Amino acid sequence: MPEAAPATTSGRDPVRPLLGAGVCFLLYRVGTFILIPIGAYFGGIMVASTVPPLLAAAFATSIAMAIFESRRLGDIGLHWREGSARNFAIGMGLAIIAACMVILAPVAAGVAHFRAVAGADISWRGDIFFPLLLLCGALGEEIAFRGFTLQFLIRGYGAWIGVIAVGSIFGLLHAGNPGATPLSICITIGFGILFGFAVVRSHDLWFPLGLHFGWNATLPFLGVDLSGLTIRVTRYEIQWNSDALWSGGSYGPEASLLTLFILPVLGVMIWKAPIRRGWTWLLDHGPDEAESAPSA
Known about the structure:
By secondary structure, the chain is mostly helical. It has helices spanning 16-48, 51-68, 84-109, 124-146, 148-157, 159-172, 182-202, 206-221, 244-247, 257-272, 281-284; strands at residues 112-116, 236-240. The protein has a domain at 79-284. Helices cover 62% and strands 3% of the residues. It is globular, with a radius of gyration of 19 Å. It starts with 15 loop residues before the first helix and ends in a 12-residue tail after the last helix.
């Protein structure tokens, strides 16, 4: 993995990156602890698991950027620049391809098949509403994990340490999802590392956001569970003719060996993707350099 920023040198405080990332992550966790019950009360589990984390992540990152860098939220790689739409679209496309490989290959091999869901209450409004919520959820997690927290660690300790550490935390925090297994945790850690690698490649959050959203949005439309949640947006679902080791059980494909095998393939696609390099304050501006604004 290429180094996105110089690692800590002898003239810098080795504790500061850990302190900054820790403060940001703690504020995020406190924010979700307060906001998720409110979201559940007014909007149910889907709203609670997507909108409050986005609000908490934006708040925590804004505070951390202001305290430690005197910068704004958008400087973590959220500026809309030439190439942002391209990076988002490429990320989403790669994730859709990976998700289809996990689901449609077993269908083609006869290991799984589609079946109608009796009494499914589906409407076009839901088909629009749920992707918007999933986009909020993916954006919230990207800001929380691949925003200030990851980038501050990368600038202090280097890309390898930052990406692996944050990716591991990302996976471990999914251990409380319904139906989670040791395999699902390992796979989610793998996704967290790949999303972090995407940040190192693109120097923005649009590329990893496209990957994250593309994966999360595709699985429900293919009739499978997403991280232990059943999101009904179609009138069919996947019926597996194999055990949970291959189907993922109640957690969904993210607890399946099939997804584990796809992760390296997705990693190569991320590595070779023809993306445009973006700009983030923490990865493109050294701590000892004069201030400069990104060009549009």
